[in-house]
Request: fold
Amino acid sequence: MNTAEKLIALADASPKVFDWVSLQLKAGRKPSEILADLPQPTRRAAPGPWDAGRSEFDKLVAHLRQSRSNCGPSHAECVAKGFEADFGWNHRDLLLAASEEMA
Reply:
């Protein structure tokens, strides 16, 4: 099974996973990059956007929108990277969600 087939099989697992994978592809990420970010069964996985912790993700996105508005995009990117380190959410996902909600 090649990388694209693995990603398709994963996306078919649930509507939430499908939506998240679609968002990643629309953002221009390669299938191999997306697969690398997904939880691995042998290690404790960071929460994914489809997990029950979605309200945490939404709160972080709201903070990033405010950060971008007050201090600019470069500051928001630094904050997003901090959130990735502290909370386990991918900083690109957070920034993408923040920019979509601002539009």
In short: Helices lie at 3-11, 15-26, 31-37, 54-71, 73-87, 91-102.
